[in-house]
Amino acid sequence: METFFNTTVTQNTIYEPILDHVPPCTIYSFGRVSKSARTCIENYHLVTFNINRHLATFLPDPIAFRSMQARTGAVISGSNVVQLLDRTYYNEADLDIYVNPGHGYEVGEHMIREQGFRLIDKHAEQPTKLDLEASIEHLTLMAMGAANEAVNTLYRQGSIHIVCFMEHITDRGQVREAQLIMTADTCVMNIITFDKAVALYPLATFEMRTNHRMVLHGALASTIASADQAIVKYTARDFVLQREHAANECRVLFAHGCDRKVGDRWCWTIKFNMQGVARRKPLEKERWSFKLYGECQQVAPTDSEDPVMENKWRMLGNWTCLSVKYCVLRFPIFRYAYTVADVMEALCARKFSDDISVVRRRGSGKERKWFDDNIQAILEGGIDVLVGDEIIGDRDFAIEDDLSDLGATEQWPGHAFPLKITDNIDGDLLMSMAARYCEVFEMEEMEGKNWRKDRDDMKK
Prior knowledge:
Blueprint: H1 2-10, H2 12-19, H3 24-30, H4 35-48, H5 51-55, H6 62-72, E1 75-77, H7 79-85, E2 95-99, H8 104-114, E3 118-121, E4 128-129, H9 132-145, E5 160-169, E6 175-183, E7 190-192, E8 196-199, H10 202-207, E9 210-211, H11 221-235, E10 240-241, H12 247-254, E11 259-261, E12 268-271, E13 312-318, E14 321-325, E15 327-330, E16 338-340, H13 343-361, H14 375-380, E17 386-387, E18 390-391, H15 399-406, E19 419-422, H16 427-439, H17 442-459
């Protein structure tokens, strides 16, 4: 028996077909059986989740593409990511590239000049493949209007701004399609960044293989129709439609009511080999050192993180209609938009943005434009903004008191979430909106946090 086991875990022609057909938890559990089993899983991991090999199906130069991702924060999502994590292949899968606002031209130019793709003009009477020069010209026009223009595409959601359709013919004559999706606040379930792949709900998706529709209450009919189309597509791919879950099952599969962050312990995160890939650089050349409340020493600046990894949310709603609750932060101090689940963090970011605006109006602080590299400290609300020795803003700013003073009768008309917070919303109005946001699913959030705390305490 021991000889059989040792032969199995050392021969890739034996263990690869077996592991290809078992769920992720089984793979990693097997890796804990013995040292040789762990080595087997590590070798399987290196081959199966080789991102360069995966991307080579679509791109002539995966390394250059990933370096571009690092510069721009672009991510891959959709069926392409699912087939990597599910260890399968879809003949009809294309490449969905989600692009941060302001990076549309750079990403598109890379795809055209370095990866050999050409734009498809779908607004013509017949879809027309453009040449190099026309592709660049068309891309320029689309990128210029991406911030304020929505077009009719296969994506009906209002958060999708512009979609560039692209096509590449491989040396073997195979047609590869890609979509450049310029969006501000679209939520996706699985992503490939320049250095990792992340599944936000791996238990529900790849372990239980469930298919669940999630839409906001009051969503447009077109949005619901898009969700239904996705349900049909993934049902055909052996992801079973499940219309409701028991309470405990929902807490395990979706961390219901708990604070989430991309790459957290409930995610399945696969790190990639970074050989040859240019690392992401800070947005500002000079790192910013700052002081926390009550501290005398400056805090050492942190390394620049991929902006997608800084997003947070909560899964809420009843067991038959789950919804994602979050605030969208769009401030002039941040190069990118971010989402947070805790409205206190959102209001701390708003206060910091207001304080920096005061500093700039006084003629100071103009040497630094972006503060994304310090977003974690900003969300915690622990940074003193100073001009000389003067602290800007109110250090004793009590957000909790402001929210509680509004009382339960204060209501913001319309949907409570997602809550978009900008620098030009009136302060009193913002507090009313925040209070309404806090009220929605408040009991479910408390139950979820208590359940998670009890579960964590049992493991200690």
